[in-house]
Design goal:
Layout: H1 7-25, H2 51-60, E1 67-72, H3 78-91, E2 96-99, H4 111-115, H5 119-123, E3 127-130, H6 138-152, E4 162-167, H7 178-183, H8 186-192, E5 198-202, H9 209-219, E6 222-224, E7 230-231, H10 234-242, E8 254-258, H11 261-274, E9 280-283, E10 285-286, E11 289-290, E12 299-302, E13 307-310, E14 322-328, E15 332-337, E16 343-347, E17 349-352, E18 368-371, E19 374-376, E20 379-381, E21 392-396, H12 406-411, E22 420-423, E23 428-430
Parallel strand pairs: 1-4, 1-5, 2-3, 3-4, 7-22, 8-20, 8-21, 21-22
Antiparallel strand pairs: 6-23, 9-12, 10-11, 13-14, 13-19, 14-15, 15-16, 17-18
Amino acid sequence: MPCEHCPHCKEQEAIAAVLAERMSQNSFEDFPNVVQELQPMEEVPPLNPCQQPVALDICNNWKEQKLHFIEGNANSGKTYLLSAMWALLKNMELNVEVISSCPFPRQSKPILKFLALPDEYIEEIDIILIDNANQITEQLMKSLSEKLKRVMSTDAPFGGKTIVLAADFGQLLPFGDFKNKSKSTLKHLTENIVAPFKKHTLVVQHQDDWSLFLDNARKSTKIAIPTTNIVKSIDELIEYTYGPLYTEPPHLHSMILTPKKNDVDLINKKVLEKIKGKELVLEALFNGKKIRSDLDLHELRLKKGSILILEEPFEGLAKGTRLFFEDYDRTHLNCRVIENNKLVDIERVNRFLAPKSPRKSFKEEQQSVKQFPVALGFASTIHTCQGRRFVNLGLFKLNQCFEHGMLYTALSRVGRFEGFRVLADDNIIENKLEPSLV
């Protein structure tokens, strides 16, 4: 309360009276408008004449038509289209999630990780984009539908969410018994079960010799590899794929693919031998002490300039990330992410050992060692390369392809005849197919 005779208080009262009089003479219109900063728009990549109408149809009618299925051969741009649609939908201020088991240009997660999301998070999602849906089983898709129904408290298919699937069922299917999985693909689901999906078909814009060759690999039981693409030795295959390793670093955007895991280990060791430099032996640690053992988990053999692959997630990098090994110290591997050239230091983590006998209870401690979560990444099985693209591709023992879509999946990892070589005695390769899927 102001003092009755205090000069300071009287001065404050006078100032307040003047301010009140001035405020009464001004309207709120005299105050400057506060401009809210606009959120940056997502950049939408250009679409070709086949992709554009599909994107506009789905984005403009996402409330009315809830279920969409985009089908197309390799190189038709399915993943590219989903990435563009993600940007369009984000610019419409919609909440979009991406499910993919393979690398995707935007942030994504595998379906099992999506199913583990909390209900509150799922409730806010408007649209779910699913890439490489040929890698998802019908049962998992039904589980997704049931969870969305429960979260949204409705019997509408997928809880009333908008679902956009993209798939090429000529490619590999999920792991499992072939007879059962060929009957339980999402192609069957999109046509017969849950709810009708609106089908969109993407076609390759420029039908050249390469696209015709891939289409033949997708549909034919025998494939004729051009004789110019045949090599006769593993040394020739390695040099084509990675270059002259004695004098140069390996070509980073290259890979050798093979149907079976045993051959992956063989090729990795062969390529490592050819790289110039001293071989490093990084032994695992148990209770702070080195483990002397020839097991792969215990002993990691590398050279500077090796290509590595992450065997488990590490500091935001996904499992399967390819790395270029530059240097090391006692506790870290100094690497560069091949995809974006980002530097990353990999440290030892707990790697769990497979027990000799099953644990009697969950309380029983599982033994682990400290080791770097990487392996040599010069070669890969065809199963684990889906969704990736390479500049140079070596193909080893293609005549041992044992599943539907394996040969087609391998060949479609490049985009031209000059981009691959096959180690084979004969240029005619037997192809495994399920006719109902192509």
